[in-house]
Input
Amino acid sequence: MKYDVVVVGTRVAGAATALLLARQGVRVLAVDRARAGSDTLSTHQIQLPGGARLRRWGLLDQVAATGCLPASSVRFDSGYAVLSGAYPEVDGVGAVYSPRRTLLDVLLQEAAAEAGATLRDGFVVAGLRTGRDGRVTGIRGAAKGGVAEDIEADLVIGADGKHSTVAQAVGAATYLDRGATAAACYAYFEGLPVAGGEVYVRPDRMVGLWPTNDGLTIVFLSVPAARFAAMRTDLDTAFRESVGGVADLGPRLAAATQAERLRATPDLPNRFRTPHGPGWALVGDAGVVMDPCTGLGIGHALHDAELFSEAVLTGDFSHAHQVRDAYRRPVFDMTTRLAAHSPDRTGAVLFPAIARDPRLVTEFLGVLTGITPPDRFFRPGRLRRIVGWRGLGRLALARGHARAQAGAPAFSR
Output
């Protein structure tokens, strides 16, 4: 059978894309090498724009029904000031959800199948079919242990992650690459209550705590890549010491019980790829991947699913590309700055000033959850109103010091 679209990858980006296309009557096949219900490394977080999309699609209540508690507030401890408050609402959604991927992925896959998409798990894509003109015309692959198959399609969408087989097969160009500067670890704990989300930023680490399923709390740690190499000799101990060395987390962690093994990876690239070409497109991490320290990956995958499923219907992939990059680039810049874990004293000026104004705190929390573009919040005129003229001078000195520490000219553009 020939399909209108074959989606390679059935986790968040792929399953959501298949769901939206199937709801529009598109004949969709979605395949994945992993078995349905399997786990994967993840920040877990569905930030507010992603939650708003799931609500529009009729799925947010199902996420809540998995027993994943919402985080409607967050405590952001910069080391210089603590910003605490409730999230602003987006389309009736005012909380971050952090469900286990064993539940979220299956929920989306089942919704896609219910909409009419065909899903096949345990299917390994070996390559792509191409016509004489070089246009992609389908996939080649096989079920694990099965016979090789050629499957025809008008379009192949790669939703197969940062090491995308589709992206590599078509030679999708990378046009912005900042490499990997950090590593991440996380574990689940019982007996570690949180009232909402908690984020702690320090010069050499970033820690996050969020409620997830089964009464557990996920504890996330980001550290510089060089430091992670030294931690690997005893990663569990290093994780506990790194998290426990921040604020009051030491005694809280000691009183809790780790529920599952620690998960860790230094494989955290930051790059943009061209997301479309003749007969192919890329969504999710296959197109843009960034460090997980800001927890925006799931929301970005859902955004891509919406953008590129619409492009399938309109044929305007260039527009989807432009919208994706305009939205993603400011967040990418903020994320890679945080993931660099570089000495930076600008927070000593900025965060105490924000903390003095509850409206600014709420707006800053909107930056963290992907509502407010960082470049809009931190634009020069706005910064002057936040910190004042004297504060601007102190910010300039702090930025010059940070650039000097990094080996860059103090006034480089």
Summary: DSSP finds 14 helices and 19 strands in the chain.
